[in-house]
């Protein structure tokens, strides 16, 4: 079920990315096309304006006619258009018409037959605006018409749009091909990036599934014990409370164990959702260490373990005092559980440059090297057959607390040679 949802999310994320990229490409293609079209129209208008001014000034009498530099009017009559190269003759031509609409002059820079040219001129004259577009035999022409001042009639400048339209079609084809290639590449890239983005989601989902499975397993054991002992008590309803003390004690121990487990689960859940607050402030770290170690002395003595600790009370710390003491408690509890009778545990606190280093060492059973990176994972237990190994949450909580203080926690251990946990905290 989980993989199905993740795969569905993967596909949806890929499609969303591709849709966004394709939309951007479409906007880019349309924008480039209309920008190029606008630029061509602007240039055409500029050339037509120069042609109109030259024709009316008598500089141009026919098209094409300029193979060398353009002749300029005398200084007494400066041109009314900016200087520039002569207009292209292959797609511009003009006609002059009488007031009745008959063509009185046509430039030589065109290949239309007389009746076609007359029809083109008539269509332009029929237009209401001085500029427009007419079509003739599937060809499109832009026209610019203006009255002739020196002679009655109209000047009509035509621009054959076939060449420009061909360029626009070529541009659109090129943009479409490039867009299609980019669409394929974007799909591949989106699929890859979506898969990379799903890695932490898959990891989180797997961790959550493992967490729920392990939590259910850990809770099932004390509940089974409680239920079994309650069944025994209920089956012996006529017995006194004192005679049922063994079963009631078992129920109490399992209840305490389950309460600790639930507290640990709640702590980690709050930590995962960034809802586990820390009361950061300066505090006497050396004194806090002594207070954290003292409650474990009776437990160590009851098991025949020597517990030694050395810390200068003058050493100060900066962080959440209660959480740092919790880390010490977790490490000591772990050391006592895994150290045999007659063993030894040493706790030391010292300065090491810009850091404060806490060391908890025992000469217990040790940890195999292949487990060094796993012991801080939730619910991990190197030996699940041991009933006193706990739920495997303590070291995960300790790592979160240490890392939340900007520190590090590491383990040095080997089977039969004991275990040393080293916690380095920044000194502020």
TrEMBL record:
* Organism this protein belongs to: Anaeroselena agilis
Q: Which Pfam families match?
A: HATPase_c, HisKA
Q: What is this protein called?
A: histidine kinase
What domain of life is recorded for the organism?
A: Bacteria
* Membrane-crossing segments per the record: 12-36, 167-188
Q: Name one GO molecular function term.
A: kinase activity
Which PANTHER family does the UniProt record give? SENSOR HISTIDINE KINASE YXDK, TWO-COMPONENT HISTIDINE KINASE
Disordered: where is this region? 64-83
Please report the stretch or stretches of sequence annotated as the Histidine kinase domain.
Answer: 214-428
What SUPFAM superfamilies does this protein map onto? Answer: ATPase domain of HSP90 chaperone/DNA topoisomerase II/histidine kinase, Homodimeric domain of signal transducing histidine kinase
Enzyme Commission code(s) on record: 2.7.13.3
Q: Which CDD domains match?
A: HATPase (cd00075), HisKA (cd00082)
Q: Does the keyword RNA-binding apply?
A: no
Write out the catalysed reaction: ATP + protein L-histidine = ADP + protein N-phospho-L-histidine
The UniProt keyword set, sorted, is: Kinase, Membrane, Phosphoprotein, Transferase, Transmembrane, Transmembrane helix, Two-component regulatory system
């Amino acid at each position: 079920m989980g993989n199905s949802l993740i795969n569905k999310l993967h596909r949806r994320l890929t499609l969303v990315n591709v849709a966004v990229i394709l939309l951007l490409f479409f906007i880019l293609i349309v924008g480039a096309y209309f920008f190029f079209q606008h630029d061509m129209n602007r240039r055409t208008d500029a050339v037509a304006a120069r042609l109109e001014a030259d024709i009316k000034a008598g500089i141009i009498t026919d098209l094409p006619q300029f193979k060398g530099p353009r002749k300029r009017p005398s200084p007494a009559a400066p041109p009314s258009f900016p200087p520039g190269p002569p207009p292209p003759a292959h797609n511009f031509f003009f006609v002059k018409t009488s007031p009745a609409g008959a063509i009185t002059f046509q430039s030589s820079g065109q290949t239309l037959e007389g009746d076609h040219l007359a029809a083109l001129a008539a269509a332009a004259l029929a237009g209401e605006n001085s500029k427009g577009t007419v079509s003739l035999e599937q060809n499109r022409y832009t026209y610019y018409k203006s009255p002739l001042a020196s002679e009655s009639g109209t000047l009509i400048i035509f621009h054959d749009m076939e060449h420009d339209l061909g360029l626009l079609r070529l541009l659109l084809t090129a943009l479409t091909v490039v867009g299609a290639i980019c669409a394929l590449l974007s799909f591949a890239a989106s699929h890859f990036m979506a898969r990379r983005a799903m890695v932490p989601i898959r990891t989180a989902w797997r961790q959550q599934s493992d967490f729920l499975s392990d939590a259910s397993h850990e809770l099932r054991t004390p509940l089974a014990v409680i239920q079994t002992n309650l069944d025994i008590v209920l089956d012996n309803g006529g017995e006194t409370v004192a005679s049922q003390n063994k079963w009631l004690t078992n129920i109490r121990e399992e209840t305490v164990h389950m309460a600790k487990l639930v507290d640990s689960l709640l702590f980690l859940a709050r930590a995962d959702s960034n809802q586990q607050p820390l009361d950061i402030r300066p505090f006497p770290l050396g004194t806090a260490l002594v207070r954290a170690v003292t409650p474990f002395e009776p437990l160590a003595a009851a098991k025949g373990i020597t517990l030694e600790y050395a810390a200068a009370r003058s050493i100060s710390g900066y962080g959440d005092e209660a959480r740092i003491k919790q880390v010490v408690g977790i490490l000591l509890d772990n050391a006592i559980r895994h150290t045999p009778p007659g063993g030894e545990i040493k706790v030391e606190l010292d300065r090491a440059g810009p850091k404060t280093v806490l060391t908890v060492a025992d000469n217990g059973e040790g940890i195999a090297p292949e487990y060094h990176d796993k012991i801080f994972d939730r619910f991990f237990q190197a030996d699940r057959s041991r009933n006193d190994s706990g739920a495997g949450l303590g070291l995960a909580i300790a790592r979160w607390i240490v890392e939340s203080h900007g520190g590090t926690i590491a383990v040095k251990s080997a089977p039969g040679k004991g275990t040393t946990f080293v916690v380095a905290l920044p000194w502020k």
